[in-house]
Amino acid sequence: MTYVIAEPCVDVLDRSCVDACPVDCIYEGGRMAFIQPEECVDCGACVQVCPVEAIYYEDDLPEEWAGYTALNAAFFAGVGSPGGTANLPKGTVPDPAEVTALPPRPAED
Question: Which of 43, 45, 70, 103 is the most exposed place for a label (fewest CB within 10 A)?
């Protein structure tokens, strides 16, 4: 099991989770972040700092966002386990089509 980032992250990309991750397993796509399940050590450090409450333990993912487990896997399908964000800079891998197709999140005032 691992943690999964869900829809509240789309168009936010705060980076607090990326900075808090002790094993550097959170990667940025174009519109949201993704957790590499083979690299995640299930510490939960990312959950505590997420400003939009988008990160859930896989078994606790709300039903409305259950598809994000598969979207997370799809993000890493072609790149496997890069071994840290320096090895897979932001924008290197496109978001899954389902994420790209989501309507833009309104900007916060």
Answer: 103
> Distance from first CA to last CA of the chain, Å, rounded?
37
Gyration radius (Cα) of the chain, Å: 13
Burial of 34 (0-12, 13-18, 19+ CB in 10 A): buried
**pLDDT < 50 positions in the chain:** none
Please say whether the beta carbons of 9 and 75 come within 8 A: no
A 10 A CB-CB count for 13 gives 16
**What's at 9, amino acid-wise?**
C
Count of Cβ atoms closer than 10 Å to residue 1 Cβ: 10
Would you state the pLDDT for residue 28?
A: 93
Identify the pLDDT of residue 1: 66
